[in-house]
Amino acid sequence: MQRQMAVSLCTTFSPSTSEGVSLTVARERGQLVFLEGLKSSMDVFFQAHKEPHPLQFLRGADPGNLQPLFDFVREALKPVDNREPAWRCPVLLVDDLSLLLSLGVGAVAVLDFVHYCRATVCWELKGNVVVLVHDSGDGEDEENDILLNGLSHQSHLILRTEGLTTGFCRDVHGQLKILWRRPSQPTAQRNRSLIYQYKIQDKNVSFFAKGMSPAVL
Questions:
Q1: Which helix (H) or strand (E) holds 178?
Q2: For a tag site, which of 40, 44, 66, 177 has the least CB within 10 Å?
Q3: Which residues pair with 121 in a beta bridge?
Q4: How far apart are CA 97 and CA 102, in angstroms?
Q5: pTM over 0.70
C-alpha cells in the first residue's frame, strides 16, 4: 500500500472509514502521517518545545515563516530507519490553506510553502499534493485571490464545488467543475473541462451529468 500524509491545519479531524480504507489503521501501520492543526496549535501556546514546532509561526515574530511546517513535511517523508520502506508515490493532503491567511500568513508565503512541498513530493518522490482552498467569490479578499490564482496556475487538476445558481433544490445540492491541464499536449488540447451535478446522501455522494438527475429522469 502507498504511504500518505495528511496535514490538517487548525481544523479538527476524526479518522474514519471510507470506501473500505481505515485511516486509523493506516496511521497505526505508518502509512499515514497526520498533523492535527487544532490540537497542535494548543501545544504551541501552552507547552514548552525544545525543538522547532511545525506551527510555531502562530507565536513567532515572523508570522509568514512556514519553514518549520515544511520541515515537518520533509522529515515525515523520510524512513525512520533503513528497515522502513521508502515513501512510494506519496500524497500530501492540506486542509485547508485558506486558514493560513486568516491566521495572518501572507498569500506569497503560502504559495512558497506549496512550491517547496511540490518540489519534494511531486518532483523528487513522484507523488501528488492535494490542497483545499475556499473562495468567497466576492472579489474583495485580495490575499485569497492571489492564493487562488497562484494555485490555479500551478495545478494540473482543479475541482471546484459550488451551489446551484438557481437556488435550493431537494434532488441536486450543487455542481462540480473539473478542469484538467495537460501542458504536454498541443495548445488546442491542453485544457479539458467537465461539469457534474451532485447530491449528498447519508454515507456517500451521487454524481451525474448536468440536467440528468435521477429525480428528473
A1: strand 174-181
A2: 177
A3: none
A4: 9
A5: yes
